[in-house]
Amino acid sequence: MNNVFVYLEIEGKTVADVSLELLTKGRKLANQLGCRLEAIAAGCGLEGIEKQVMPFGVDTLHIFDAEGLFPYTSQPHASVLINLFKEEKPQICLMGATVIGRDLGPRVSSALTSGLTADCTALEIGDYEDKKAGKVYENLLYQIRPAFGGNIVATIVNPEHRPQMATVREGVMKKEILDENYKGEIIRHDVAKYVPEAEYVVKVIDRHVEKAKHNLKGAPIVVAGGYGMGSKEGFDMLFELAKELHAEVGASRAAVDAGFADHDRQIGQTGITVRPKLYIACGISGQIQHIAGMQESSIIISINNDPNAPINTIADYVINGTVEEVIPKMIKYYKSHSK
User: Residue 216 contacts by C-beta under 8 Å, 6 or more apart in sequence?
Assistant: First the structure.
């Protein structure tokens, strides 16, 4: 009762990074609330899954292991969560804002009439006063996300209905192991009690998962280009610089929309969130939507011919000049010093 739950997204037998990040956040929220952290693993052949999960401070792991639960289909997984939550009555449920989370979250929240905040960038615990009703609610989940195209940051609360549900994108929260030997309870459920046979009506006949072409999220150095790069050819310079630095190339939404870079390289509120050791922003103005996806970078260098570009306010170093002038000099310098 009243615990924090995290739905684990599982590909084969591997728990997704976004779920492990949410376990880290969930552990902190549970500590603040003085309750337990529980996790739900639904799939097939999940022996030993607890080794991936328990070190993040999970007090109870609910395992639903049945053939029809992998690959993911909407109905069985929704039934698992809805029926488990009717029994356990959690106060908070977190899941990744992935293709699966975006499909599953609304189904569960709708069935339980609980409400859901999508794409949160921060989660906190706090109080809320409803002045109209003259009520004070304590220890609510603050579900924080950009709104109105990223022009404001909204804090959303759900005073009455439970669970308070939120989805969070991969890379937004930090993933930290609490204790390699953390001992939690494991409950292996009888799936048939939670999922009626009729829910397996959709069968996956063939499934093709394409691996990402790059590791933008895990790269220690990211060279990112904006609309200021001017063209697809302008981005070729960034790929050359990235090669010298052993970095990955990212892009702002404006650059992607203009066709300068592929969509899967987009960094920001509607793209990937990165936190590299070094982020080099080339010709990026730094709208709030882009900053939301890279502000956790350890060191930020901005190359821009506009001294008043918003990105300069969060940059550690600013190189004032055109990208056409600065980047070839950087490439030349690193080429001569890498031998």
Answer: 222, 248, 249, 250, 264, 265, 267, 272, 274
What is the pLDDT tens value at each position of the chain, 339 positions in all?
789 999 999 988 899 999 999 999 999 999 999 999 999 999 999 999 999 999 999 999 999 999 889 999 999 999 999 999 999 999 999 999 999 999 999 999 999 999 899 989 889 999 999 888 889 999 999 999 877 766 778 899 999 899 999 999 888 888 999 999 998 999 999 999 999 888 888 888 887 777 767 788 889 999 999 999 999 999 999 999 999 999 999 999 999 999 999 998 999 887 888 999 999 999 999 888 899 889 889 999 999 999 999 999 999 999 999 999 999 999 999 888 765
C-alpha distances (whole Å) from 334 to each of 215, 216, 246 are: 22, 21, 11
**298 contacts 317 by C-beta, under 8 angstroms:** no
**Of the candidates 170, 225, 188, which has an alpha carbon nearest to the alpha carbon of residue 15?**
170
Identify the three-state secondary structure at position 27: helix
Beta-carbon count within 10 A of 47 CB: 9
The Cα–Cα gap between 58 and 82 comes to: 21
Regarding pTM above 0.85, the answer is no
Query: What is the Cα–Cα distance from 38 to 5, expressed in whole angstroms?
Result: 5
